[in-house]
């Protein structure tokens, strides 16, 4: 049976984006025709977590409602380089625990992290959504693999905009950053666009 995960930010005993995480869990059960779900808030409270600091609260669950939890200390790290990797068939519309295909792409790339290209369009890294900077504004690709909770939250707050980001227009952006439930949008954690090792050259037509 398929296993799914939720990775949730917990800082100084406070849980973040709970409603968005619960909505995604409920939608997963509903999509597969299951009436049962799990209650993230109840699970978190049952742990009686009272530690200060930043943690990744990981819930692994299946469609019968069985689950296991981990509370993992978390620290953001800088990534040395990125590589664009084409995969037109990969689907990650649900947050599956099985990440074998993602890890395979990453190993074959020989880069610290990958940016997956699907049908010529920029999507996500192996573990995050992406933001790209043009001028003073930040944009996120319309062509995501997984519509992450942080991405949804930033769009709802109108802090970012959606854009069609392709191999052809990628060089129009100056910087990019990675966002997910643990990593919020922060200019100080952005990378120059040339941190992508195989960044396409601007076409002569431009």
Protein model, in words:
The protein is an alpha+beta fold. The protein is 19% helix and 31% strand.
Outline of the structure:
With 206 residues, the chain is α+β, with helices and mostly antiparallel strands. It is 19% helix and 31% strand.
Short descriptors:
alpha+beta, 4-stranded antiparallel β-sheet, 19% helix, 206 residues
Structural class, by secondary structure, is: alpha+beta
Largest sheet: 5 strands, mixed
The largest sheet has its strands arranged as 10-9-8-11-12
Overall shape: globular
Rg on CA atoms, Å: 18 Å
Secondary structure: elements and pairs:
Blueprint: E1 3-11, E2 14-15, H1 18-31, H2 40-47, E3 54-62, E4 67-73, E5 82-86, H3 100-109, E6 113-118, E7 121-125, E8 129-134, E9 137-141, H4 149-156, E10 161-163, E11 175-179, E12 191-192
Parallel strand pairs: 5-6, 9-10
Antiparallel strand pairs: 1-2, 1-3, 3-4, 6-7, 8-9, 8-11, 11-12
């Amino acid at each position: 049976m398929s296993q799914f995960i939720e990775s949730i930010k917990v800082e100084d005993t406070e849980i973040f984006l709970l409603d968005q995480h619960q909505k995604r869990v409920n939608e997963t059960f509903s999509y597969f025709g299951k009436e049962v779900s799990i209650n993230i808030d109840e699970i978190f409270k049952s742990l009686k977590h009272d530690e200060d600091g930043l943690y990744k609260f990981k819930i692994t669950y299946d469609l019968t409602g069985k689950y296991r939890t981990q509370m993992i200390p978390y620290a953001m790290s800088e990534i040395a380089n990125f590589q664009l990797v084409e995969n037109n068939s990969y689907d990650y519309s649900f947050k599956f625990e099985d990440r074998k295909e993602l890890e395979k792409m990453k190993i074959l790339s020989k880069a610290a992290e990958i940016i997956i290209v699907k049908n010529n369009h920029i999507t996500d890294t192996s573990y995050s959504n992406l933001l790209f900077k043009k001028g003073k504004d930040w944009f996120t690709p319309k062509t995501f693999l997984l519509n992450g909770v942080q991405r949804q939250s930033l769009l709802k707050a109108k802090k970012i905009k959606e854009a069609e980001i392709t191999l052809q227009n990628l060089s129009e952006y100056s910087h990019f950053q990675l966002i997910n439930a643990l990593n919020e949008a922060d200019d100080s954690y952005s990378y120059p666009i040339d941190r992508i090792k195989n960044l396409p050259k601007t076409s002569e037509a431009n």
